[in-house]
Please model this.
Amino acid sequence: MSDLAVQAEGLTKRFGAFVAVDHLDLGIAKGEVVGFIGPNGAGKSTTIRMLCGLLQPSAGRAVVAGFDVGRQPEAVREHIGYMSQKFSLYGDLTVRENLRFFGGLYEVPRQDIDARMRNAIAMAGLEGRENALVQTLAGGWKQRLALGCAILHRPPVLFLDEPTSGVEPEARRKFWDLIHQLAADAVTILVSTHYMEEAEYCNRIALINAGRLVAIGSPGELRRRELGGTLYDLSCDALGAAVAALREAPGVIDAAIFSDRLHVLMQGDSTSLQPFLASHGITAGVPAPIVPSLEDVFVQLVTRPHATGASA
Amino acid sequence: MNLKRVLAIAFKETLQVWRDPRSLAIALLMPLMQLGLLGYGVSLDVRHVALCVYDQENSQASRGLIQQFVASNWFAVVRNLHTERELRAAMDRSQCIGAVTIPRNFTRVLDTTGAVSVQAVFDATDVNTTNIAIGYAQGVVALATTNFGQAWAQGHGVQPQTVGMIDLEPRVMFNEGLDSRNFIIPGVVAVILGLVGAQLTSLTVSREWERGTMEQLISTPVSALELMLGKLVPYFVVGLVDAAFCLTAAVFWFQVPFRGGIATLALTTMLYTLVVLGIGYLVSVRIRSQLGASQVALLLTMMPTTLLSGYTFPIDQMPPAVQAITLLVYPRYFVTILRAVFLKGSTLGELISPILGLIIFAVGLIWIAARAFRKRLD
Model:
C-alpha cells in the first residue's frame, strides 16, 4: 500500500442508470508510467476525474499520494498535477501569465517561481514567446505549456487526460519524451490516450472498456499473456479454405485473413502448420512469428466474453 | 484562506477584464449612459413650458400677471396673440402647450369686485406634463392673487386673507421649493450601480465553465472562498470607479446638492458594491452558461430594483405586504442612504438601520455564495 502512488478499490461512478466506471481496481507504483487505454466513452476520463477528486465516486474508494479522494480531496489536489482533456489554460493570458497564475494557486515559493517558470518555458520550447497570448499558440505548444503549468508545484502524481489528442505526431513524440523525463524524476504518471501506439511508451498499460478494467500489465506481458499464444504470419493460396481448416487444427486459437496473408494465433509447434495445410490440399509458405500489436490484443480482449478478469 | 492564491486570482481576473473590451465597455460606459438616460428621463419637473398669451387688455396689471408667468421659469412665453383664431391655430399646430387669455376688463373687474377669471387652455396630449403645467399655472396665479389681493385689500380697508380668486393647490406650494431631480438622481445612481455590478460578476464564474478552464482551476487546492474573493477584487475596483463616475456626475452635472461627508459616502458605497457584486457572483456560481447567468442576474435585479427600491415609487405609499417585500430589495437601503447623505447630510450613526440592512446582505451573500460553489464536476 505505501509503495502505491495510486490505489483504487471497486471504484464506481454511476450517472443515473448509466454506469460509467464499474468496480475498477487499480494500483500504480511510485514512479510508474501507466497508460490508460480504451475507446472513447470507456470511462477513462471519469476514472481520472474521480482520482483527482473532481467527481464523487458512487462506490468504492481511492487513495492518491496517500490521501483518500473522497474524504481528503484538498490534500489530494495539493499533491497532484492534472491536465484535463479539453485544453484549459487561459487563451487571453500570455505564456508567462498562465504560469504565474498556476504558480500562485499552487503556492510555489517566491524564490523558486522564476526558475520553475523558466524550466517550464524551456520544456515547452517557448523561449522567446513568453509574452505571446496562449490562444495564438499551436496545439503542441499549448499542450506542453499545460503540462508545464500542471507540474509547477512538483507534484508526485500526475494525471494526464488524453494530453496528445488532436496534436500532430511530431509534437506527440516530444510530449512523450517529457513524460519520460518526469518519470525519471520519480513522478508517478497515469496518462490516458486512444492512440494504441502510445501505449508502447508506458511501463504498464491498463485496458478499459465499458467502464471495466479489461487487463493491466506491461505491453510485452499483455501480448504474451492475454493472447494466450504466438502470432504467426504465413502466405498461402486459397485463403478462405485455409482459415476454415486452420480453426480445426490442433494448437490453433484463431486464424484470420490479413490482406493477402494469414495471421494464425497458436500454442505449440508451428512446424506442423505446413503439413496440416498440405493435407487439405493447400500450399503454404513457412510460418514466421510476428509481434502482435496492442490493438490485436485489445480487440482479442474485448471480443472474448470471459475477458473481464484483471490482474493488478 | 491563503492570500497568495487570492492575489493570483485577482491578478489574473484583472488581466482578463483589461483584455476583454466588451466587459470593460459594459463596466465603464454603461453606468454613465444609463445615468444620462434615467437622469433626464425620470425627471418629474417641467420647465419652460411653451406658453402663448392673448392679452386683451394690455394694461399694467395684465402685463404684471404675464411677467409672473415668465419669472417663475416654469413657463416661456413663445408668442403674443391678438385674436381668438390665432389662439386656436397655435394650439392646433402645437406651437404651445398652454395659452392664457386675459380678459379685456381684467383691471376693472379686479378693482371693483376683487375676483376675476383668467382662462388658461392646455394641450392634454401629454397628460403628465399638462397636469404639472396646470399645477404651476395655478401656483403662478395664486402668487399673483396674493400680490394683487394685498394691494386691493389695503385700498378697500379689509383684511387681505378674505380675498382670493383661486384656491391654492398644495402640490404647487410643495413643489415650489422642491426640485424632483435632487430626489431622483441619488436613487438612479443606486439603481444603476445595482444593475451594472450584478452584471459584471454574473459572467465571471460561468465564463470559466464555458471555456473549460474551470476543470483545471478546481483541480488545484484553491478554496471556494479564495476563488470568490480573488474574483471580486477587480470588479470591486471597477464598481467603485463606476460609483465615483456616477456620483461625480450627480454633483457636477446634475447639480444635486451634496451636504454629507465623503467618508460616509465612500464607506456605504463600498458596502453596497459588495452586496451587488455578491448577487452577481451567486448567480454565476449556480448557472454555468454566460448568457443564462447574465439574463438571470438582470431579471433578479431589474424588476425589484426599478419597482420596489423606492427610487420612483415611494415605499411608504405601498400596501403593507409590498412594503414588507421591499425589505428584501437591497437597493432600497442604498437609495435611502444616498438621498440622506446628499440632501440631509446624514452621518453613519443616523443611517445605522439601512447600513445594517446592507451588512446583513453582504455577509449573507458571501456566506451563501462561498457555500454554493462546489469544487466538483457533478
Summary: Chain B is about 70% helix and 5% strand. Chain B has a mean pLDDT of 83.
